Amino acid sequence: MISVVQFGGSNCDRDAVAALDHLGVDAERVWHGDGLPADTDGVVIPGGFSYGDYLRAGAMAARTPIMAEVREAADEGVPVLGVCNGAQIGCESGLTAGAFTTNRSARFQCEHVHLRVERADTPWTAAYDEGQVIEVPIAHGEGRFEIREDRLATLEDENRVLFRYCDADGDATDAANPNGSTANVAGILGARETVAVMMPHPERATLPDVGGTDGQGVLRAFAE
User: Fold this and answer.
1) Quick check: 30 and 70 in contact, CB under 8 A?
2) Do the beta carbons of residue 211 and residue 144 sit within 8 Å?
3) Where are the catalytic residues (predicted)?
4) Residue 167: its pLDDT value, please?
């Protein structure tokens, strides 16, 4: 069973469950105060505005007891995916490197963007080809990925960048970077390849009648 962790202010938990159910993956919403169920086979930390984004996005949720359980599960190889606010929580809790800060525009942005698949040999990208361009939506005010140059070099050296913002032709240009993320990074892996965070919403590009299906491949990792 995939546990979709719900915090006060989460608003994409139902979307994630619906998308996973559509793919035949058993998923349930789990209130953070109840802890991870014993039968958890995977974890989704969904989007939204946990704790109203007070202090900074994801900072308070990252310090809840359930995130200690999520980190322990991740260390044991349980797949963990953080999306949007879940990506912010993932970085804040140490699941992955870097941080997400205010968009370059200083505005909330809700639009479809193109992503280039940087690797096709991870659980999260096995359904795609390396270099493939997919289209998924974003919806965030603090989606700009920031990381020190030396740590970015480590991510690059260890091939832990999953997705980059790009144009329809696959070029990772500044114009195609919707929020000013460092090196156009849209999604990365943690120390384990079973842990990933991404700012765009694959669950909103999974149901055929709502937003296309380009995001299905990310969620299929849980089925595999």
Assistant:
1) no
2) no
3) 84 (nucleophile), 201, 203
4) 98
- Reference 91, options 117, 43, 57; nearest CA is 57
Helices (H), the chain: 13-22, 65-75, 85-92, 149-157, 216-223
Q: Confirm if 44 and 2 have CB atoms less than 8 A apart.
A: yes
3-state SS assignment for residue 197: strand
Residue 44 has phi, psi (to 5 degrees) of -115, 130
Give 166's Cβ-side CA count (13 Å radius): 18
Task: Just list the catalytic residues.
Answer: 84, 201, 203
Give the CATH number of domain 2-223; options: 3.40.50.970, 3.40.50.880, 3.30.565.10, 1.10.287.110. 3.40.50.880
Residue boundaries of the structural domains of the chain: 2-223
The span from the first CA to the last CA of the chain, in angstroms, equals 13
Surface-to-core class of residue 61, CB atoms within 10 Å of its CB (0-12 exposed, 13-18 middle, 19+ buried)? buried
Query: Which regions of the chain does DSSP assign to beta strands (E)?
Result: 2-6, 27-31, 42-45, 80-83, 99-101, 109-117, 133-140, 144-146, 161-166, 185-189, 195-198
Q: pLDDT tens digits, residue range 151-202?
A: 999 999 999 999 999 999 999 999 999 999 999 999 999 999 999 999 999 9
What is residue 119's DSSP assignment?
Answer: -
